[in-house]
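User: Can you recover a sequence for this backbone? Please restate the input before giving your answer.

Assistant: Of course. Working from this structure:
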């Protein structure tokens, strides 16, 4: 990821071994990585490229034989051709390591992501004029073409939302076999993981590709969600004994608002009640929202939040400031929609700053200033205020948390709320290092910020 580049370069400065490889995938400025000392960059998914690269490192083949490999040869950058995404069935023949999670600090309390869908079904394209690219010719394939026709654009515009790299590098949505998912979730929970996220660019894409196979799933609106596949998966992962007993929690993350209907909301509420679900609004201006390449309409975002809230889930909404085409009208419209979503019952609003990502439609745009220094300042102030109010609503409530770390200087335990919630600082009498790794109850005493709350053990005041 773009934000990982500084960390990657720092890690490389401490590397004393053999060749240094970034990816795959590595959907970033590969020339910068090569200049910084990396020997190879794998651009696309690694399941095809990495085994072939291992043969190169063993001296059995040449770099030119590895698809999607980027490297320096005689001072010039060479980028081997190849599809960035791996077809099925080879893709799912690889099983991720479960034990590897224990190498991360606080792994027992962290959200651990289990992949259920690779890629995204949104093959719409943005209609905002793009720098250094041909304009959209209005061929209509993005919205009305066949599933195969949507893969390519006569103007060469990358697919999906203009700010997102998922469809360009991971391809159309491909669902992982149910047995693989259930086995990984079961093993993680047995190891001691307490929060599992069924990870997907859109969880509601799960099983939709099976409905159109062998065609690629490149339509973000049709067919509707595969309710049978979704229910089967959720029933099995929530039937794991530790989940039934409340010792572990299963959640999902992102859903496309245009795929949410009453049946979907009821199904998710049946198995995931009380857990968060994330929905992308990004822009509240109706025309700007669609021009970004979004698969949804603003009204569908509002409807999805209503349905999911009614079903007992906790909707979280994403918003992005600084996007191409943003102006005071766009910000004003987004502020209005955010206020409406808040009244409906959104639990949290996450505001991101647009970052141009290499290979996306919006690659050529400059990175905008921080929201506080731009036309998006009213949106920034509103989001901070609403998120702080949400934290204040927790004051006086008893909640479950898992201890992650202890700071002896402050005599406080940093804990994560279960199944999900703000970072919690636990202070006062009875707080010590023995709480790290344990699940225990606390009472929220105050909102520290729009992201953090402070709590004590039950029956203990802040000053005890």
């Amino acid at each position: 990821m773009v934000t990982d580049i500084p960390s990657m370069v720092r890690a490389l400065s401490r590397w004393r071994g053999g060749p240094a490889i970034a990816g795959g995938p590595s959907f970033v400025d590969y020339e910068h990585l090569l200049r910084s000392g990396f020997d190879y960059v794998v651009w696309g998914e690694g399941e095809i490229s990495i085994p072939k690269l291992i043969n190169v490192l063993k001296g059995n083949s040449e770099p030119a034989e590895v698809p999607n490999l980027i490297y320096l040869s005689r001072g010039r950058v060479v980028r081997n051709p190849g599809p960035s995404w791996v077809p099925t069935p080879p893709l799912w023949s690889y099983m991720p390591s479960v034990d590897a999670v224990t190498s991360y600090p606080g792994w027992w309390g962290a959200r651990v992501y289990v992949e259920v869908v690779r890629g995204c079904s949104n093959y719409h394209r943005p209609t905002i004029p793009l720098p250094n690219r041909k304009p959209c010719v209005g061929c209509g394939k993005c919205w009305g073409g066949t599933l195969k026709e949507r893969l390519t654009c006569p103007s060469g515009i990358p697919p999906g939302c203009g700010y997102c790299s998922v469809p360009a590098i991971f391809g159309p949505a491909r669902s992982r076999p149910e047995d693989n998912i259930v086995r990984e979730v079961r093993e993680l929970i047995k190891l001691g993981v307490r929060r599992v996220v069924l990870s997907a660019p859109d969880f509601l894409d799960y099983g939709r590709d099976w409905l159109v196979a062998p065609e690629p799933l490149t339509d973000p609106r049709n067919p509707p969600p595969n309710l049978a596949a979704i229910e089967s998966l959720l029933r099995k992962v929530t039937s794991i004994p530790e989940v039934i007993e409340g010792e572990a929690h299963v959640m999902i993350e992102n859903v496309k608002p245009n795929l949410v209907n009453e049946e979907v909301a009821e199904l998710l509420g049946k198995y995931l009640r009380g857990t968060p679900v994330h929905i992308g609004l990004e822009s509240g201006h109706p025309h700007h929202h669609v021009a970004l390449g979004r698969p949804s309409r603003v009204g569908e975002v509002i409807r999805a939040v209503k349905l999911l809230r009614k079903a007992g889930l906790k909707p979280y909404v994403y918003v992005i400031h600084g996007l191409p085409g943003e102006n005071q009208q766009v910000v004003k419209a987004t502020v209005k929609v955010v206020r409406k979503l808040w009244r409906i019952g959104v639990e949290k609003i996450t505001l991101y700053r647009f970052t141009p990502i290499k290979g996306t439609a919006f690659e050529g745009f400059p990175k905008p200033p921080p929201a506080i220094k731009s036309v998006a300042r009213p949106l920034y102030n509103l989001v901070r205020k609403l998120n702080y109010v949400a934290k204040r609503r927790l004051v006086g409530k008893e909640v479950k948390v898992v201890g992650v770390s202890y700071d002896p200087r402050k005599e406080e335990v940093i804990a994560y709320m279960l199944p999900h919630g703000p970072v919690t600082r636990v202070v006062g009498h009875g707080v010590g290092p023995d709480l790290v790794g344990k699940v225990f109850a606390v009472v929220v005493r105050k909102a520290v910020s729009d992201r953090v709350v402070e709590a004590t053990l039950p029956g203990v005041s802040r000053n005890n």
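That completes the design. Residues 328-344 form the longest helix (17 residues).
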